[in-house]
Amino acid sequence: MRLLLLLSIPVLVHGLENGLARTPPMGWMSWERFRCNTDCQTYPQDCISERLFKEMADMMVKEGYSDAGYEYIIIDDCWLDHKRGDDGKLKPDPTRFPSGIGALSKYIHDQGLKFGIYEDYGNFTCGGYPGVLGHMQTDANTFAEWEVDYVKLDGCYSDPSTMIQGYPQFGSYLNASGRPMVYSCSWPAYMINNHPNYSAIAEHCNLWRNFDDIADSWDSVLSIIDFYTKNEDGFVEVAGPGKWNDPDMLIIGNFGLSLGQSEAQMGMWCLMAAPLIMSNDLRHMRPEFKAILQNKEAIKINQDPLGIQAKQVYKQNDIEIFARPIMPSYQGKYSMAIGVLNRWAEGTPIRVQVSLKSLGLTNVGGYTAKDVFSGVPLGTFSPEDTITLDVNPTSIRFIRLDILSGIRYSTQERWRWNAENRAWMATLEDSLPDQPGNGQKGVCVTKPGLTGWLN
Ligand code: GLA
Q1: Which terminal residue of the chain, N or C, has fewer Cβ atoms less than 10 Å from its own Cβ?
Q2: What is the pLDDT of residues 173-232, one digit of tens each?
Q3: 3 state DSSP class of 23
Q4: Calpha distance 147→100 (Å, rounded)
Q5: What was the pLDDT predicted at 128?
Q6: Pocket, ligand 1, Cβ cutoff 6 A
Q7: Which residues of the chain have a pLDDT value below 50?
Q8: How far apart are CA 36 and CA 341, in angstroms?
Q9: Residue 187 Cα, ligand 1 centroid: separation in angstroms?
Q10: Burial class, 400, CB count within 10 angstroms (exposed 0-12 / middle 13-18 / buried 19+)
């Protein structure tokens, strides 16, 4: 009887509760950049093989990515042999992974990194290799034997209506294996327009792909941002420590994004509390792209312990503003990271002036502001001040505003005109009347040749 009970535990476990991914996972994954290239004769450096993953592990350490916080090296699709072994277990392609997955895992761990692997909930992976369906317990245990730290479970060749049982079931086998493994589910990505059950997903997965695959283009990045901005099924609200929305890999350093677009992807992914999983060739990175990926201030915002995902607070024509509450806090109010995204592709910057109050920043003691990518301090601001930001075409200004403690402004005067910032400054938050002036909503967008309050 006792034995029977023990055997049935895996399918009865409610929730993942594995204590992992308290902040969004950071690492590197093969798919977007290296796809399913299995031709090692023609492409020995770029095919999906143990060599590729060892070289990426070496570069993660040597080039400073691991010091910046990136830790997982994750194999995506096309690592498997087309058939399971005689023992029913998964096995890698023998010519491309001659040393075996256990040995590759050890190599990666020996570099001080963690090791991730890809499988699929269905009969086959998207690339046509064996899936876990019908073998879940065996495969979870095989991953544990290989000392896997992170599993991405895709959803090709499966029936999405069974995912609500199947994904939790595989997660329970991972848990029952005794090895802590981050569990990345593609479950909702197979239910776009079908209202995935996000509270169940967040209960059973550490991260989940919500939307389509990223491709190497600005259009692709924008389509993903748009999907997350619409937040049609309310998935932004369920994110937090241990459970993250995954807008897919960072493509910075590849062929499709300019420098400004790369800052925009990095900035938006940090604001969205997204996993920072790069898919690029770490062996050939231009220093300016590497600097974006390793930017300490950006990563600090991404890894903020509150784990609150940004929301869009403003949208007018080509300008969108996103805000993410972050630490430190003071008297129940948070600091804030903001991103001003400019989608205008015509070749001159747009000037955006935004009042702190319109961003919900009401701490009377004010805030200090810093530009994340340049590291340049922008000064201190009260809630009634406006901050002026010039944003390059198809780019972002990524700013952090740290809350200040104490009253910084004289309580004698209720309002004073700050000539430098061309704004009225309030002194006491509790007694703030409406801002003097013409009742603008707090954001002013100026394109050269067209000036004015657009909202
Ligand atoms: C799907 C996933 C991708 C990648 C491929 C591999 O398309 O969404 O991220 O894993 O499968 O075949």
Answers
A1: N
A2: 999 999 999 999 999 999 999 999 999 999 999 999 999 999 999 999 999 999 999 999
A3: coil
A4: 12
A5: 98
A6: 31, 76-77, 118, 125-127, 154, 186, 213
A7: 1-13, 408-416, 426-440, 451-455
A8: 33
A9: 12
A10: buried
pLDDT, residue 423, reads: 52
Question: What is the SS3 string spanning 398-420?
Answer: EEEEEECCCCCCCCCCCEEEECC
Q: Which residues carry out catalysis?
A: 154, 213
> What is the sign, positive or negative, of the torsion defined by CA atoms of 34, 275, 397, 69?
negative
48, 126, 191, best to mutate for ligand 1 pocket (most atoms within 8 Å of CB): 126
Q: How far apart are CA 110 and CA 128, in angstroms?
A: 31
pLDDT for 446 equals: 82
| Integer Cα distance of 175 and 182 in angstroms | 10
Helix intervals (H) in 231-377? 259-271, 287-293, 296-302
d(CA 49, CA 40): 8
With tokens 């922008």, the residue in question is: 378
Both tokens assigned to 380: 């201190």
Neighbours of 455 (CB within 10 A): 14
* Of 266, 269, 287, the residue nearest 373 (C-alpha): 266
Instruction: Tell which residue, 272, 276, 258, has the closest CA to residue 225.
Output: 272
Distance 143 CA to ligand 1 centre (A): 19
Strand extents, DSSP E, 188-254: 207-209, 244-246
> What's the pTM?
0.90
Q: How far does residue 387's CA lie from ligand 1's centre (Å)? A: 41
CA distances from residue 111 to 115, 274, 293 in whole angstroms, order as listed: 11, 25, 20
Distance (Å, rounded) from C-alpha 338 to C-alpha 71? Answer: 26
How far apart (Å, rounded) are the C-alpha atoms in residues 278 and 275?
Answer: 9
Q: Ligand 1 atom 4: the closest Cα is on which residue?
A: 31
Q: Whose CA is nearest to atom 11 of ligand 1?
A: 126
Q: Is the dihedral of CA 223, 298, 372, 442 positive or negative?
A: positive
Only one residue has tokens 């800052």, namely: 263
Rounded to whole angstroms, the Cα distance separating 436 from 417 reads 10
User: Ligand 1: which residue has its CA nearest to atom 3?
Assistant: 213
Position 447: which residue type?
K
Report how far residue 112's alpha carbon sits from residue 124's, in angstroms, rounded to the nearest whole number.
32
Strands 182-185 and 207-209: parallel
Residue-level pLDDT at 62: 98
